[in-house]
Amino acid sequence: MPDELKAKIRDIQDFPKPGIAFKDITTLLRDASCFNRAVDLLGHRYLEKPIDVVLGIEARGFIIGAALAYKLNRGVILVRKPGKLPYKTHSATYQLEYGSDTLEIHQDAIEPGQRVLIADDVLATGGTVRAVVDLVQQMGGEVVECAFLSELSFLNGRAKLPSVPVYSLIQF
Ligand code: AMP
After folding, report:
1. Residue of 10, 30, 37, 97 marked catalytic
2. Of all protein residues, whose CA lies closest to atom 16 belonging to ligand 1?
3. Which end of the chain has fewer CB atoms surrounding its CB within 10 Å, N or C?
4. Is 97 designated active site?
5. What span, in angstroms and rounded, lies between the C-alpha atoms of 7 and 113?
6. How do beta strands 100-106 and 89-95 pair?
């Protein structure tokens, strides 16, 4: 079944930069049965797991994270790009191939001891989710797992997360 879903993700060559093959999930999301199945399959994995809250990473992670949270009957919290969150924030800056990026979370988004499921659309190099894991842990949260709709296995992003469980529904 994930093969059908995999076929729904479209490759866009040289986006956003030359040399990058962008995994465009909008073609999967717009198909009702594929979106439904993808969320059900991911969500099923966590039905019996002790999760207090689901965290979505801007921007496509909001879609996966919010749908998962609804299925699991949990709340959803947001990690956003700088300057988007209105209340006091904690931030994490991490290195990209060229330069750096920053992500923010509300200071009261996670209570110490809360068990957090992190959700995003694509695991690539792992830099983004590494920064998010650090934020959650610094706030006293426990990362139950990082869940991705898809994973670019050849980039070995998992290597950046040696001590955190990682799951992806679809692998490229
Ligand atoms: P990374 O930090 O390299 O794991 O990149 C992860 C973030 O960038 C995710 O939020 C993805 O949405 C996005 N991303 C990175 N590479 C790709 C790609 N080839 N196709 C689609 N999204 C990507």
Report:
1. 97
2. 124
3. N
4. yes
5. 39
6. antiparallel
